[in-house]
Amino acid sequence: MRTDIQRQAKGKISALRDLYACSGTQIGAFMKSAIYPGSFDPVTFGHLDVIRRAAKIFDGLTVSVLNNKLKTPLFSVEERVKILKEAVKDIPNVEVESFSGLLVDYARSRDVHVVIRGLRAITDFEYELQNAQTNAKLSNGGLDTIFLTTSLEYAYLSSSSVKEIASFHGDISMCVPEFVAELVYQKYGLEKK
Ligand code: ADP
After folding, report:
1. For ligand 1, is residue 64 a contact (CB within 6 Å)?
2. In this structure, what CATH number is given to the domain that contains residue 61?
3. Active-site residue flag, 47
4. In degrees to the nearest 10, what's the CA dihedral of 100, 76, 173, 120?
5. Whose CA is nearest to atom 25 of ligand 1?
6. pLDDT tens across 28-50, in order?
7. How much is the pTM?
8. Domain interval for residue 100
9. Ligand 1 touching residue 42 (CB < 6 A)
10. CA-closest residue to ligand 1 atom 17
11. I want to staple 132 with a disulfide (CB 3.0 to 4.6 A). Which of 80, 99, 145, 191 is the partner?
């Protein structure tokens, strides 16, 4: 005859087995591929850090440049895609493309169920949370967002600060790869520092 303790232990083991099986299935299904969408105007070391880390977690990562008609970018979508392709050319499981319209429609068309976003500070959080929840709702739960927190050395970095510093001919070498810095200065009619 079983004691209460034996019965409880059996229950716990079976619950753990269910949990393991469940997370195993989900991880298997979700870790195949992800999309990292953004403006990338221009790509910074902060973005590249997120890309490298996400590429280690997922079998395939698509970095997707949003063609946002509401913003006036420094670089055209085509230029940003070209720059990103060059910047990630050493990471084999990363591809770069552009998209316009709703992220949920784009993700559905690619049969991808995970979006990667980066979080730098509390200020990012509210905006990102709202976007993630909106996308989950619009996709009927078919699109989840996974956040990678910024590495400390890149926490201060943003594309807009890179542009602002460069426009005053400040040094952006600690923010973007050398070839990107050159292209940014060119846009402002300036020589590379
Ligand atoms: P968007 O206009 O969609 O915010 P960005 O190109 O500015 O596009 O950023 C794309 C994503 O990368 C966002 O999730 C943003 O929070 C994240 N990101 C930007 N800079 C950094 C950084 N320095 N460290 C980590 N994540 C970052």
Report:
1. no
2. 3.40.50.620
3. yes
4. -20
5. 150
6. 444 799 999 999 999 999 999 99
7. 0.85
8. 31-152
9. no
10. 118
11. 145
